[in-house]
Specification:
The chain is an alpha/beta fold. Helices cover about 55% and strands about 10% of the residues. The two termini are about 30 Å apart.
């Protein structure tokens, strides 16, 4: 069964190096991805983003299943970081062949680790979903968000109403408000108040007058109430009845009339002021005796009461008006004004009754009852003074009062939300517990994986060594013609150094091409081993950026062959290379490495092509439906293939022109010389044939052939030139390229 191999699905390059602030996207990536672009166009930037996306905040990469695996990148940075003359290169550990028991244990542990990691992955999918944006964790978050929004909407009247100042600090964040509501439901146990009382206090504490208020003076009605109870008011005030005139006055009941008329006696010249008859000699004396001192005292008492009542009622009215003028919000002015109006009317009515009593003292009177009004006024004042006292206490202890009121307001809000929060807590805890169990399972499994990895590492360290990779790289150097230097073990036996045949250090004397080639061989070896003692080869994404820089043509073919071997490795069921990115500016290398007829079956469908351009100092990335480089070059070789299969069926001049173009390109690329210098590579008869080949090519491509002097060669002659064409590649050591372009299989 093929193992799971993760890939990068999308790359975003933005606002880095020569890429501007717009998004440059590579998507629909395949397992094999070719990137072509000139030097400085931005290829290395792409490789750097792939290696360490965390260093480029504006860029990013997306993974299939949101699972990230190791990336190994070959670029100029890799060469600089690993090719350090002073310290050498870190050794590459691989597994040895000894101790079969230990190897069996390693195999069992690796299989167990695979099962554990698969189980962990399944749990992670349940927790986070395939895309990392769903699953139980997201469901829990979404559930919580729904209640955050619900609570926010349900508390709008509190947040915008008269008690909002008590909620300050939580009005600009739905989440903070929600968390506070949860906390208050759990912890706030203060006495639940009434909303209107909270409103009133909120006005005082948060927005009202913060000055000490004077209490409203009480209104004392005791004096006026005492006057109302005076007995003289209910007494019939008449004169002395035992005098002679008394019987008549009593009979007539005209005491008040008589008393009123006595003031005219002095001016009547002895005549009765009413009948004009002469008065009896002692009549005045009788009248004066009748209206004695007692009568006069009673009249004086009545008059005093009347005057005092007037003064006291005026005082009370003024005092009440002064209270109304204070405009205090602590007293109900409307009710007080209503009571005052009634009171004034009562005062007026009673004063009139007192005037009547003074005028007719013999008639008893009773003043109008007004006790409920003073009681009402006293109640209003008492209530107001109570609020004033509370206000003054609040002002004196404003900080404490604010905190107290805030607790009471939150208590009210929490109470209003009690059912919703209880519902939320029940369901949230249920979901949270489920998620927590899954996370604990994953944690336990992660710890188990780490324990097994530790044991595996210990076992592997017994079998791993850096020597095999040293030997492999040295064999490659020797096989590829690099005999002047080789790798040796460093001083710590876990690193490599480069030495000459005489043992002298060679790092500082290598050419740039040699240096780059050694670095590439080291990178290639690293893909099959590890820098740590476990020797474990991880699943990996491989990125190769311009590997043939400063290398000659021979090395180019070597590198391209090695890279194609990676493509074959990638196609295997147990592949450790999950995805391959190859970037280059070298046209010929691109043609060589991207020649799909040498790819494993099915790899063509997994191959993608990209062009990186830089115009006006700005880089861009373009996807290509097919290989943008090799199409025209392959077409030239198709002509040669047809001529080889049937020499007589191919138009001669077309074949000549085609072969010339191929050889001119290859000669220039490989040998850095012209087509005319090609025969110099041959000896004897071969040189003559080579010269003939060159002349034949020139004649077919550049000359105006004379039908009388020139006869096109027979098909046999064409075949000889085709053979010489092949020998050119054979002699130059590039027969592999010839076979590739002629579609000749390696084992043919």
């Amino acid at each position: 069964m093929r193992g799971v191999c993760q890939m990068i699905t999308r790359i975003v390059i933005k606002d880095v190096a020569t890429f501007d602030a717009s998004e440059h996207v590579m998507q629909d990536l395949g397992k094999l991805n070719f990137i072509f672009g000139s030097n400085g166009s931005g290829k290395t930037t792409i490789s750097r983003v792939l290696e360490k996306p965390e260093n480029y905040s504006s860029c990013g990469i997306s993974w299939a299943g949101n699972i990230e695996i190791e990336r190994r990148v070959y670029n100029s940075d890799f060469v600089e970081e690993n090719f350090v003359p002073e310290t050498g290169m870190r050794g590459i550990f691989t597994l040895g062949k000894e101790e079969s028991d230990t190897k069996q244990k390693i195999k069992e542990l690796e299989e167990k680790l695979k099962v554990l990691e698969d189980e962990k992955r399944k749990t992670e999918i349940i927790i986070s979903g395939e895309d990392g944006k769903s699953g139980k964790a997201t469901e829990l978050t979404s559930f919580r968000e729904s209640y955050i929004n619900k609570i926010w909407e349900e508390t709008k009247s509190f947040r915008t109403g008269s008690i909002r100042d008590g909620l300050v600090g939580y009005l600009n964040s739905k989440t903070k408000f929600f968390e506070m509501a949860l906390d208050q439901c759990k912890k706030n146990k203060v006495t639940l108040g009434k909303y209107d009382e909270l409103e009133r206090r909120a006005y005082t504490v948060f927005a009202g007058n913060h000055e000490i208020l004077e209490e409203i003076p009480t209104v004392n009605f005791s004096c006026i109430e005492k006057m109302s109870d005076e007995q003289i008011l209910s007494k019939k005030v008449i004169g002395k009845e035992d005098v002679d005139i008394g019987a008549l006055i009593k009979k007539l009941g005209n005491s008040d009339w008589v008393q009123f008329g006595t003031k005219y006696l002095n001016d009547s010249d002895g005549l009765c002021p009413f009948c004009q008859q002469p008065l009896q000699e002692n009549f005045r004396d009788q009248v004066e005796e009748y209206f004695d001192d007692t009568y006069s005292a009673d009249l004086l008492a009545i008059d005093t009461i009347k005057n005092d009542y007037q003064d006291e009622s005026d005082r009370l009215e003024e005092q009440i008006n002064n209270i109304l003028k204070r405009s205090s919000d602590k007293i109900n002015n409307d009710e007080l004004k209503q009571a005052a109006t009634i009171l004034v009317e009562i005062f007026k009515s009673n004063y009139k009754r007192l005037e009547d009593k003074k005028r007719t003292p013999s008639i008893p009177i009773k003043l109008e009852n007004y006790r409920e009004i003073p009681e009402k006024i006293a109640e209003l004042i008492t209530t107001a003074n109570k609020e004033i006292k509370q206000h003054n206490i609040m002002v004196a202890n404003l900080t404490d009062e604010k905190e107290k009121l805030k607790r009471e307001i939150w208590r009210y809000v929490a109470h209003a939300l009690e059912s919703e929060i209880d519902e939320y807590n029940t369901e949230y805890q249920k979901r949270k517990k489920e998620l927590s169990n899954l996370q604990q399972q994953n944690k336990d499994r992660t710890e188990e994986i780490q324990r097994e990895k530790t044991e595996l590492s210990m076992l592997q360290s017994k079998l791993t060594s850096v020597t095999p990779m040293r030997d492999q790289i040295n064999q490659q150097l020797e096989r590829f013609g690099f005999s002047g230097f080789r790798l040796a073990l460093g001083n710590d036996e876990h690193s490599y150094k480069i030495i000459r045949e005489n043992g002298v250090a060679a790092e500082k004397t290598l050419s740039e091409g040699e240096r780059n080639f050694v670095a590439f061989l080291y990178f290639y070896a690293l893909l099959k081993g590890s820098k740590d003692s476990t020797g474990r080869v991880p699943s990996q994404i491989v990125v190769i950026d311009d590997p043939v820089s400063s290398m000659d043509s021979d090395v180019l073919f070597i590198v391209s062959t090695l890279i194609r071997s990676l493509v074959w490795d990638m196609s295997k069921d147990n592949a450790k290379i999950c995805q391959l990115f190859i970037a280059t500016h070298n046209l010929y290398f691109h043609k060589e490495v991207s020649f799909d007829r040498r790819f494993p079956k099915g790899m063509k469908a997994e191959t993608r092509f990209w062009l990186v351009r830089k115009v006006g100092g700005k880089s861009s990335i373009e996807p290509c439906e097919k290989n943008p480089i090799t199409s025209s070059y392959e077409a030239l070789w198709d002509t040669v293939i047809r001529a080889t299969e049937n020499p007589g069926a191919t138009e001669l001049m077309s074949l000549q022109n085609t072969m010339r173009r191929i050889l001119e390109y290859c000669s220039t690329f490989y040998e850095k010389n012209s087509l005319d210098d090609l025969p110099l590579q041959f000896q004897g008869d071969d040189r003559i044939i080579a010269k003939a080949l060159v002349s034949w090519l020139h004649n077919g491509s550049h000359s105006s052939m004379d039908d009388f002097n020139y006869t096109p060669p027979h098909s046999d002659g064409t075949a000889r030139y085709l053979t010489m064409f092949k020998n050119v590649f054979q002699k130059a050591g590039h027969i592999a390229h010839y076979n590739m372009m002629m579609r000749i299989k390696e084992n043919d």
